[in-house]
Prior knowledge:
Elements: H1 3-16, H2 26-36, E1 39-45, H3 54-83, H4 98-124, E2 127-132, H5 141-157, H6 164-190, E3 224-227, E4 244-249, E5 264-268, H7 271-280, E6 297-301, E7 313-315, E8 320-322, E9 329-331, E10 337-340, E11 352-354, E12 360-365, E13 371-373
Antiparallel strand pairs: 1-2, 3-4, 3-12, 4-5, 5-6, 7-8, 8-9, 9-10, 11-12, 12-13
Residues 304, 306-307, 309, 311, 323, 325-326, 328, 341-343 line the site of FE2/S2 (inorganic) cluster (FES).
Amino acid sequence: MTDTTHHAAGHAADEEFDADDPRMTRFDLVREGARRDGVEIVHYEPRFPVPGTRREKRIVRSLALMFLLVGLFATAFVVIYIAWPWHYSISNDNAKWFTPILGLTLGLSLALLGVAMITWGKKLLPEEIAVQDRHDGPSDSTEAKLTGQTILNMGDELGLKRRPVLGLAALAGLAPLGAVAAAPIIGGLIKDPHTTGPKLADGQKSSILTTTGWTPTEANPGPIALTREDGTKIRPEDVSVGGQMTVFPGIPGGASNEYADSPTLLIHLRDDDAAALEATLINENKGPVEGFNWKNYVAYSKICTHAGCPASLYEQQTNILLCPCHQSQFKITNNARPIFGPATRRLPMLPLALDPEGFFVAGIVQKDGSIVPSGYTVPVGPGFWERSDKIS
Ligand code: FES
């Protein structure tokens, strides 16, 4: 048929067709609506012409069960999100299950939802084969009505009216899934990260976002020693010239995941590199007397300021520290300034001092020679919404 004859035939059919004719069934309207949209329904067959068969009931029951499980796992996600301890500590290592269980419950909920939707489509919805042409321009009021009836018909085909159990089960499953979507947003408003840090040495509350294992607290007032993974302290001569060592805060659990934000790279610079660092030290990395470096030694946070990977590939000849995740590079002799890659903030410098026994500690040397315990003076790791230090 040419395009002209197709339109002529279509107009003739429009004139004969009365959408308000009470003898029309809904499916007549649906078929006509589809036809006017260039969709020909060539095969249409309900899966269960006789409703209420045993097979249909069995499918409805298993679908209802799936939706209830969707809701159950989604509810478990919300409960675990709120109630499970999330902050790992050596005294309570249940926190290591927090993220895996969240992933498991949400994964099962979404997977079951997917299986339920596919099962519904394949086992309950009528079998239909339709061939569709495209058309241009807006629809007139009759077509709008036909489309409305088509949508209502689709609702009927879902069979929720005659399968109320399935409707209720789907609702019971999907409502908690909605709560899952809202939980991270609402949870972030309920839990205040600025009150969840350790109690500081002066008794003040602190923020989990701005403290690390190096921060002097009521429990560990400091000065906190730089230690190896096994807890042994470090003297300057333990790191050779041009060498580096990963150090941890010398507090209980300091090298464990409880202080995963605390690993630090202690570097022994050559004389000319140390002089280059001294010449470029920014105020952020200076105490009242000297810089946060100690002689030729400097210590930077290992937590990449891009996305928190360990930035620990140290290129000794060029004094560049490379983060393997996305190739950010930090210039060690210039306050760990990012010079390449996605990171936009410097790696924070840990103030270094020597205690009377000659071991490295984290602290700021005062004019009278005393050491004031101090952790990092700016937050480590990636930026967050209230972080105020500037890139320089
Ligand atoms: Fe270091 Fe992305 S986490 S570059």
